[in-house]
Design a protein that fits this description.
- The protein is α+β, with helices and mostly antiparallel strands.
- The chain is built from 21 helices and 20 strands.
- The protein has 2 domains: 187 residues, Penicillin-binding protein 2a (Domain 2) (Alpha-Beta Complex); 357 residues, 3-Layer(aba) Sandwich (Beta-lactamase).
- Helix 13 crosses helix 15.
């Protein structure tokens, strides 16, 4: 019996110990540590995301081009929405009962315990009404957000826009949650990580009427958000605006660079759209309208995505390669009999009527097709076989930044096309083609393609006498230095001294009244160098092209203008480019008649 008495004491002692542990623990929870009290009263504490202010964007002259406006999202936590006054909510939000039920079910499917957006971007007026009635709406609260505002209503393709994250982003990036905003295009996308900032968390106390009473524990447990970094872009917003005005009722692009830095001064794609149209609750509807416009394609960034034949502007590159390869000199002359005859079939590459023969500088000024057919032939046939000659020629071309991505900071783009010998092998068979097969490469046709930004970069390389800086759209971020890749020179495979010959020819293009094809670009006190182009278009009227830079020495601007179906380069591209140069270098326009003609001019498509 004694052994059973000992067992009774042991069991009794165990229960006493357990009771003591519970008493001590309860005392600790209820008297010593009030954090557990907070947990038990979780229904009066709201955990709310503190969204950061998105970084501001300025132009190169510190003009504010993108800022933030207050916006409000109505949030719901379904588990806490114990009573829903259908009539009240429908009246406040101006929605019907079916929409209300759909939104509630959507929130429940997301989570019963986590807050989600019930209605995004409500107006200030609706927000004021909600504030007065939230105590009648348990489970609902208003989340303060910001929306982007574009005061100049311009530069849509360059600045880009912000939209809600999609499923792919949510899956691959844990930073974002459903309903978060992210840069979708342009600078907003390219510099999303710097502009977005870092989210924080606020713990807010609310009363039984769902009204916020202040921060929990004076904000001791809050995590403050960090504002996004401000960004100074390289663009000149006034030049951008002016270029868009000149391109009204036309399709095409203008890209202007600062040769000494590679900074993009303007990047115009026409037709375009007001970036404010893709902000707020009407964004989805407006996006569908823009996206469904398959004729004008306003969402398509022609400056970086459209690939065109460079046309006669490419003759400058062939001239430089010919000089470097020593198959021509500045005094070399070739006859032109209104074209170049080649091949066993005696085919003819046509050219316009002009005096003949011409030397290199004159041929650039007059844009003689026959001259550059001869140059291309001499380059290829200098080598033992077509393959070797063509590969040498192609390496020169690529060194000007053609046929590659350029490694710029634009979020979208095409790399153009400089065909390899394999391209022609597939079409004609190995060892079954020669220089005459792709002779139109000599005048920027055949399979050769370039984007407007590549043509502008090629022009900057010529203006710099043999090197370029990678084009970029940002000068600094929070006054910090930009990526090193934008400050390094990229050299073309041409001796710098040889550029002076070609540049002299480009000067004659503008100033020579007998042979020059760009006399409209001539200005009294600005020495403009340029080259026209007329690219063949199998789908309609030829494209009008002009590339140029100014001044001739110590150039401040290099640009490319491409007007689809504009005909001769001198018709549309030359006057547009010259007005852009005048606007940038002088700030005002004296040639008001020309300006009026271009602004009011319409190209039928």
């Amino acid at each position: 019996m004694k052994k059973y008495e000992n067992r009774t004491y042991i069991i009794g002692g165990f229960f006493v110990l357990v009771i003591l542990i519970f008493i001590i623990r309860l005392f600790s929870i209820q008297v010593i540590d009030d954090s557990f009290k907070t947990s038990s009263e979780n229904n009066v504490i709201r955990k709310q995301t503190d969204y950061p202010r998105r970084g501001l964007i300025y132009d190169r002259n510190n003009e504010l081009v993108v800022y933030n406006e207050a916006a409000y999202d109505l949030m719901i936590t379904p588990k806490q929405a114990t009573y829903i006054d259908t009539s009240l909510i429908c009246n406040l939000l101006e929605i019907d009962t079916i929409s209300l039920i759909h939104k509630i079910e959507k929130a429940k499917n997301y989570s019963m315990y986590k807050a989600s957006i019930f209605m995004k971007q409500i107006s200030v007026e609706t927000y004021s009404k909600l504030q007065e009635n939230l105590f009648l709406m348990p489970g609902f609260f208003v989340q303060t957000r910001t929306l982007r505002k574009y005061p100049y209503s311009t530069a849509s393709h360059l600045l880009g826009y912000v939209g809600e994250v999609n499923e792919r982003v949510l899956k691959n990036n844990p930073y974002y949650k459903e309903g978060d905003y992210i840069g979708v295009s342009g600078i907003e996308k390219a510099y999303e990580d710097q502009l977005r900032g870092q989210k924080g968390v606020k713990l807010l106390l609310k009363d039984v009427h769902n009204n916020i009473q202040g921060s929990f524990n004076d904000g001791k447990f809050d995590i403050k958000s960090q504002a996004g970094k401000n960004l100074q872009s390289s663009i000149d917003i006034l030049l951008q605006n002016y270029g868009e005005k000149l391109m009204k009722n036309k399709k095409g692009s203008i890209v202007a660079l600062e040769p000494s830095s590679g900074e993009i001064l303007c990047l115009i794609s026409s037709p375009n759209y007001d970036p404010n149209d893709l902000v707020g609750r009407k964004r989805s509807d407006n996006y569908l309208i823009l996206n469904n416009d398959t004729i004008n394609k306003p969402l398509f960034n022609r400056a970086s995505l459209a690939q065109y034949p460079p046309g006669s502007t490419f003759k400058l590159i062939n001239a430089l390669i010919g000089l470097q390869e020593k198959v021509i000199s500045s005094s070399t002359k070739y006859k032109c009999n209104e074209g170049y005859i080649y091949g066993e079939e005696k085919r003819k590459m046509k050219c316009h009527a002009h005096r003949s023969p011409l030397n290199l500088i004159e041929s650039i000024s007059n844009s003689c097709n026959a001259y550059f057919c001869n140059v291309y032939k001499e380059i290829i046939e200098k080598y033992p076989n077509t393959y070797e000659g063509y590969n040498v020629w192609r390496e020169y071309v690529i060194s000007f930044g053609l046929g590659n991505w350029l490694n710029n900071d634009l979020p979208t783009g095409q790399k153009g096309f400089v065909p390899s010998y394999n391209f022609y092998d597939k079409i004609y068979g190995k060892n079954r083609w020669k220089y005459s097969t792709n002779l139109s490469l000599s005048i920027g046709q055949d399979a050769l393609l370039a984007t407007p930004i590549q043509l502008a970069n090629m022009t900057a390389c010529i203006a710099n006498r043999g090197y370029y800086y990678t084009p970029h759209i940002v000068k600094n971020i929070n006054n910090d230095k930009i990526d090193d890749r934008f400050t390094k020179r990229n050299y073309a495979m041409i001796d710098s001294a040889l550029f002076e010959i070609v540049i002299k020819g480009m000067q004659k293009v503008v100033e020579d009244e007998e042979l020059g094809t760009s006399n409209l670009a001539k200005m009294e006190d600005i020495n403009v160098c340029g080259k026209t182009g007329t690219a063949q278009n199998p789908h309609g009227e030829d494209h009008s092209i002009f590339i140029g830079f100014a001044p001739m020495n110590n150039p401040k601007i290099a640009l490319a203008v491409y007007v689809e179906n504009g005909g001769w380069g001198s018709t549309w591209a030359v006057p547009i480019a010259s007005l852009m140069i005048e606007k940038y270098l002088k700030g005002t326009i004296k040639r008001n008649k020309l300006e009026k003609e271009i602004i009011e001019g319409v190209i039928d498509y």
